[in-house]
Amino acid sequence: MSIFKKIFGRKSSKPKVVEIEKEEVTVEDKKIIVEEKEIKNKTMSEKIKFTIDGKECLAERGQNVLDAALDNGIYIPYLCHVRGVKQAGSCRVCNVKVAGRTMTACTTPVAPGMEVENNTAELRELRLTIIEALFVEGNHFCPSCEKSGNCELQALAYHYQMMVPRFPYAFPQKKVEADNSKILIDRNRCVLCKRCIRSFKDENGKSYFAFTKRGHKLEISMDKEIAANLTDEKAQEIMDTCPVGALIKKEKGFDEPIGSRKFDKQAIGSDIKSVV
Amino acid sequence: MAKKITIEPVTRVEGHGKVTIHLDDNGQVTQSRLHIVEFRGFERFVQGRPYWEAPVLVQRLCGICPVSHHLAAAKALDVIVGAGTGEGLTPTGEKMRRLMHYGQMFQSHALHFFHLVSPDLLFGIDADPAIRNVIGVAQKFPDLAVQGVMMRKYGQEIIKATAGKKIHGTGAIPGGINKHLTEEEKQSFLNGPDPMNIDKMIEWSHAALELFKGYHKENAGLIDSFAAFDSSHLSLVRKDGALDLYHGVLRAVDKDGNKILHDVDYQDYLKYIGEEVRDWSYMKFPYLLEYGKENGWYRVGPLARLNTCDFIPTPLAQKEFEIYKAYTNGKPNNMSMHMHWARLIEILHSAEMMKELLNDPDLLKGDLVTKGEKQSEGVGLIEAPRGTLFHHYEVNKDDQITMANLIVSTTNNNEPMNLAVRKVAEDQMTGQAEITEGMMNACEVAIRAYDPCLSCATHALGKMPLEMSLYDAKGNLVDKKRS
Questions:
Q1: What is the pTM of this model?
Q2: d(CA A205, CA A202)
Q3: ipTM of model
Q4: Residue B242 has what DSSP assignment?
Q5: CATH assignment of A48-119, among 3.40.50.2300, 3.10.20.740, 1.10.287.3510, 3.40.710.10
Q6: For chain A, first and last CA: distance in Å?
Q7: Interface of A with B in 127-166 (CB under 8 A)
Q8: Region A244-262: what's the mean pLDDT?
Q9: In a domain, B174, yes or no
C-alpha cells in the first residue's frame, strides 16, 4: 500500500478509531513522515527531462517552461515575467509550441518528456507580430523616452529586427499622471503587463498598483497613500522593474550616458545564451 | 504684363520653403517672399511632458545642429532646477557642455562651408549644377573635399564623446552633464594620428580661411555686393564683450555699430523682443520691441556675432578678426556673403577653444550636476551655428511643461533672408523674360549664406529639386523651369 493511501485512509477514519489508531500509529506515523520526506527529497532531486528545440533539458518538478529554459541557458523572450513573482501570461511574448499548441512558457509547467518548440521561424514571426502590436497600441517615442537603452520592449524590437510596425498606429489618448512626488506614470508607454501590480506589495499584501477602468480603457493606477510615502530607493526599484518607460522615477531622465545603459552593453537575451 | 515667379521647393528650413517673386508690367520686382509652408508644432506637443525630457525631445527639430537645441533647452532647465544661468554649473558640467558646443560649431560650420557653399565659390553661381555640388568639389579639389569631410568628422567625434551620440545625444541634463571625458578620448583628440588631432584641425581651419580670403581678393565686387543690405545685428556676448558662443548677455548694434540693446540678461528677453505673425508664412518675424515691427528686425549668425563682439578670446582667431574688421574700418559688416568669412573665423576660434578645453583637467573628473531651489520658469539662449537660439519653458508643480517658446536662429533671420532674396531678385530678374538656372541658384545662394538647411538637398547630389514658374497677371503659366 502506498504512503498516500495510508495517509488518505487515516484521514477518512472515524474519530474513535482515529484516536485508537493515533495512539497506536504514533510511532508508525513518525516512520511514515520520515519515509514521506525521503521520497519527497528523492522526487525533488530527480529532475524532469524535457526538450527545447530538440535539446535535452532538465527542470525542477512544478517549474514553468520559461524559468526552466532560462536555467538551461536557453533564451525565451518575455516582457511580463519576473522570476519569483506569480506569473501572469499577459504579454504573450514567451509563446512556445507544445504538441502543436501555442502556449505561454511562463504559465506552462514542464511535464516529463515534453517537447517544446522555441526558436522556430513561426514563433519568431508570432513574437515579432506581438511586439509590433504592442508598439502601435501605445504611444512609444523611443527618441525622447527616459527608458531608451534600458527598455525591454525596445530591446526586443531590436532583437527581432523590427524596422517598422506593419499595423496602423492607434495613437490612443492616454494620460500622464505626474502628481505623485516620486513616480511619474506615463500610460502612453504602458503595455499592461502587470509586473508592477504583482511585484510591489506592502506588509499586508496590498499591491502598490492596480488596474482601473475596463476594456480598451484599462490602465494602471498607483495607491496615492503609498505613492506619497515612497522612498527614493523604492521609486528606483519600481522604475527598474517596469519593462518599458511607463513608470519613471521623477527627475531621473537621461542621467545614464549612452553607452552605459543596460542594452547598450549587451543585447537582450545574450546573457542567457552564455549560460549552459 | 505682370508676372509671378515661384521657386518651390527651396528644400528644407524646418521642413519646406518656397520663394515667390512678383513682377509688374514693366518687369520690375514689386514683391518677393520666402515662405515657410510647413508647421512643426514642437512648442505645442512638448506641453504636458516632464521637463527633463525637453533637451532630448526638442533637439529633434534638426539633424544638423541638434546640439544647439539640446544645450539651449538644458540651459533653460538649469534655471528651473535651481542651478542658475551659465555660471551656476559645476566646472565639469559647464566645460563638457562647452566642448560639445564648440565641436558642434566646428562640424556644422565645416559642413556649411565645404559641402554646401564651396561649390558656388569654386565653380561659380552660373555653373552647371551637375558639377556645382560636393561631388564636383571632390573630383576637382580632392584635398579640399577630404579636409571638409575630416573636419566635420572631428567635430562629430567630439559631440559623440560629450553627448553619447553624433546626432541626437543625451549628454546635457538639467543642472549639468551625464558623463566625463576619458583620458583615452582626450589623448585621441589632442594627439591622434593625422589628420584626426586638434593641431591639424587648427591648421586646416586656417587654410580654409585663406582660401576664402584669396577668393575674395579676386571677386571682391561680387562678394561685397551680392545680397548686401544694411541691418541691425544681435547676439550673445561675454560680459566683457568677448565672442562667446555658449553663454553671455544679449547685445544688439545698429548698422553703424551703435549699441541698441545694452548687454541685457536674456532671462528678460520678452521685455526686448517681440514676434510678429504674417499670414503667408509659418515662420514668425522677431523684432526689437523698442524699434517696432518695421525697424526692429535684426540679423543673427556669424556676421552678427562679429559685429556685436569687441574681440575674440583666442589668439589666432583674434588676429583674423582684426583683419576682418579692418576691411570695414571697424564698422559693422553688412555684406551677406561676408557671412562665410565670419563663419570661417568662427571655425578657427572653435578649434582653438576645443584645444583649450581638451587640456582642462576638469573634463576628466569632478561633480557632474548641481541643483538648487526649483523654479517655475527658465530661459536658455545659445549661439547656434546659424545664430542666436532662444528656448523658454514654464513648468507646473508636477514637473510638467506648460509653455514652450522657441525662437530658432532661422526665425531670427527671417526678415533678413526675405530681404536678401528681394535684393537678388531685383538684381537678377528685373526685366528678364526667361528664367535661367543661374537666376534660380542666385536666390538660393543668398539664402544659403544664412542657412544651409534650405540648401542641403540641392547640393547634396547635384539634383536641385527647384522649380521656378512665371505667371502673368491672370495666373497663366508663361514659363516653367526645373533643373
A1: 0.87
A2: 5
A3: 0.83
A4: B
A5: 3.10.20.740
A6: 42
A7: 143-144, 146
A8: 93
A9: no
